[in-house]
Amino acid sequence: ASCAQPVTHRAPSLSRIVRPACRASCVQPVTHRAPVCHASCAKPVTHHAPVCHASCAKPVTHRAPSPSYGNWRNMTDFEVGLNALNGTLPAEYSAWTTVTTFSVRNNFLTGTLPPSYSEWNAVKAFSINDNRFTGSLPASYGSWTYLTKLSASTNNLSGTIPNWEMPTLDSLSVFQNSLSGTLPSTLSSMSGFFGSHNDFSGSLPATWSSLRMLG
């Protein structure tokens, strides 16, 4: 028994798994570079604006309303706004007793307003704004008993607003003129009055109780 060597049982050892190391010297740096376009390959872009030569510009011809139009006795709507008309309003147009709409706005008309237009018995809209009319608003226009809209703004009118009695007048626009005096109490049916940039005095008439727009 003394010669027997004791047997020692050992479990097999698991060797550590060593991962191969990657040395810093073997790693190649990655460089990201943007594509380079050399100046020699870039073509300049030239933007050309359209050119209008003087030869293509059409001259503007100013023409006056013809008095001969007064022969059109059945005229009901005369609308020639936004044109290049000049001269004065012909008195011959007073023959249009059936006209309901008269508009010459945004032109170059001058002179005074013909009092004879009071013969228009059916006119409902009268627009002469944005012209160069002078003188006063004719008192005779008070006979327009069916008028609903009168626009005479941006002219050179002076004097006062007449004591018109227009029972159906809804809107009166006379801003940017040289009108003065007090406002007439007779225009009691209006819902809109635009009279800024004038020389009016006094206060708003108490009879203007229907006003909804004031400027």
From TrEMBL:
Q: Which UniProt keywords apply?
A: Leucine-rich repeat, Repeat
Q: Which InterPro entries match?
A: LRR_dom_sf, Plant_LRR-RLKs
Q: Where are the transmembrane segments?
A: none
PANTHER family in the cross-refs: LRR RECEPTOR-LIKE SERINE/THREONINE-PROTEIN KINASE-RELATED
What name does this protein carry? Answer: GP46-like surface antigen, putative
